[in-house]
Amino acid sequence: MSQLIRLVYASQSNSPARAGSIDPVVGNILAQSRRNNDRDSIGGILYYGNGFFFQCLEGDRSKVEQAYERIRSDVRHREPRILRLQTVNRRLFGDWSMKYIPSDNDVRSFLELKGIEEFRPYDFAEPLIDELVLYFQHFQLPISADAVGNPANRSFKADLAAAAMDAKKAGLWDRIADALGLRKSA
């Protein structure tokens, strides 16, 4: 029986960032990821901001680990670092071979709500990583600057509110696990 996992990693781009333009390297990564992930029944998201890649992969443990090994050896980035690796009950990105989050401004606004000035995923604590992944799951364009308050994102807001209510009854890990539909890591 296969084991469903969620792996979140970050890395730094080897391509110089160009303000206001879409990096062709990101386009190539997306095309390649979508082909490979569709073949291997992997889902996930990709965000590129401040010179960092932030990616979540979900699927069968062996397939996700193989994908991450390919990613680690890719010359388009450096210093890949696993930020989160969990066994999960359900996928957040089952409908996406690779969802791309194109809006740097919306992510910046989301982080500002958390008191974070700059997208530096290596510095993020696990609860913020989990919340960011959940934010990306609910992300839709167009979206207002106040993403959490946007009526189009009520399910995201409801998920966060439910997680906050559960925090009174459960520990931090239990609250995060419940909000994201996770089982405790093996």
From TrEMBL:
Gene3D superfamilies: 3.30.70.100. PROSITE patterns: BLUF (PS50925). It comes from the Bacteria. Residues 4-99 form the BLUF domain. GO terms for molecular function: blue light photoreceptor activity; FAD binding. This is BLUF domain-containing protein. The lineage of its organism: Bacteria, Pseudomonadati, Pseudomonadota, Gammaproteobacteria, Oceanospirillales.
